[in-house]
């Protein structure tokens, strides 16, 4: 992973050489020499990165190189920091030759010369002891370990007894069905899931069943893994096929000397007329199938190929005409408990003693249904009997740092996916452990952080956002991140890191000084670059010498942190690149903020900050300024100096979501449109000539604008028409009675996915039929009188439709279309009496949400039987007749439900949100 650090620093040095020529006169030779050395160091580190490190000597060299890279970065950033202070004071032209700067240059030159000498001495020691040549293999595996360890471990699953297995009954039944269903065509079955979920165990137990052995004429179990030789794989396959064939043919005597062609011919001849079962365990690359497919004949005898993989893209690959995918999920709580008790309390007939019950359940919960972790932990606890021992492990459990042998397999198998990553993805994966345990990580936030950290490799063909999205998809496909929720486009909305993988990532990060976690009581300087503070009542505190920190993220643990303990940031963070204070109870930003010239990411979401510094323009490297739900009402004029800004997201809420003005835009200078790199402009008020100026911002992908007047309509449509990259558009009129004029737009932006119109509409604009990419449509306070549904029913990708006071009629008729609609929300339609959903319309609807429609007299006919995918029904402030009807259809007791409704009323005074009586049912 250190190779990417060198790569990032190389990019920084090249940028400085190109852009700061005058400043660097007198330092150019030293910096050029550093550049050459870093290029060699990067190559060295990439070799180490691919192979991992075995011994202490190699580890020491790698650590030395990494420290050198960090030291160079510190020297250059310190120099640029002091020079930029001179810039900000207005002395730039004199700063270059002033005595202070000249002295600083001499000091920097001496430091760089010293580092160059030390780099060369590291290289000389490496050559003297042959360090580079000794690099290889996977990290975490002792150099004297059996190279066939993984294969042996995989194949040992074939000898597990049924009594050792828990929670696979339903999954195995489905798997057996696909293997034995009588389909004559060759069929592929892919079992996919993260490491440690028990894929191999499930398949091995199925493979050895007598019913399977009798069904197939010959079988073979092949362990593939990350590193494989195709000839060795084919030889193993020949040996297995002959050994397990029902006719017991003799294995070819010349097997060891067979060529690739001979091996293929032997397999084809043997399998061509037989019903065969081939298990390919632990497949990492789709190229493997291309290597062996010629040896597995496509016949119509009912043959099956069964593979296990962590990679979703491999599992979903179209191998054959008939393909099945079996996603393996974590064990249920009950199954996890049973498996743990079998391992931890084997001597007690798998019964947990009552006095250990709370500790045992806590440990099982930490495993999150991961069988390998449960088995490892259960084995560890089998020898522990006292409350003191159990309590100590519960409080101090650290997966990676545990030296207990029972964890070796867990650590190794979990880290296989990490070691297989390209080096930039390794950084992205490790970075996720900066979030607290079980934290739901928002996709957009993570991507912006990766970009600010410099992890995203830019390309000519794609934007950084697209590249970063690809990184995220790769981590998800490899099972290293879990998707919790998806949006209407099926892109991940929130992800999380499995606790076991997070502990492993933390242990690697600690060794690499990549991330450190603090409880808010302070952390001492140990060369760390990124700090995650899980803040309590102590607020944010830093230890001595923490000034080299590049990233600071604060996460609020306690619900009631006093503002006085959290109101100021500690001093000394002058080189920060990332400052994320989401949810922190601060009301004023530190005076030092504007001196953070290196800052690329600033997140103030849900803080109590009322204003930004007037001199915020000094943060000219800032890429992301995110201040959602703050108390900021106006942006200072200096914001237009942030020429590198890509994301400007600032808005606040001031009312219930059922009110027209629930969201409020922010005042911005009219010349905000001079920011040529800005991608997101959200949520701003239409003032002065801003709407006309928006026509210059063709690069926008997201625009949210409020206080739009009827007279602004034509100019706004011209501006939107220029935004061919727009994916998100929100337009809100200046009040609920102001007409929203959007007819002048000829055609919708082709990439538009989310459209929110808030304001009175005479009719739907004609361009609605061009919303081919829209997945989310929100009509707010439109108060349409005409039947508008025929204009949107054919939208091919519409997944969510929200109608809030959007219709003044008595009857909504969904007659046809809406084939991809998943969520339908109808709120505050005061005259609505009936909703009609014809049979075959919205067949994939999963959620029906009706709120504040007091005149509604009946639910849509057939909702309980003709909407097969319906999972949630949410009713709020509707008539008792509707609730009675629902209870009757759902076999629920009306009186008990009404009691529950009244008991659940909540009012939150401080945020002015009023939660009305709700009725909610999940199937």
UniProtKB/TrEMBL annotation:
All copies of domain NB-ARC, residue ranges: 169-348
Biological processes per GO annotation: defense response to other organism
Keyword Nucleotide-binding: yes
CDD domains tied to this protein: RX-CC_like
Domain annotation Disease resistance R13L4/SHOC-2-like LRR: ranges: 563-875
Domain Disease resistance protein winged helix: 434-505
GO MF entry, a single one: ADP binding
Stretches assigned to the Disease resistance N-terminal domain: 8-89
Keywords, in A-Z order: Nucleotide-binding, Plant defense, Repeat
Keyword Kinase included in the entry's annotation: no
Record protein name field: Disease resistance protein
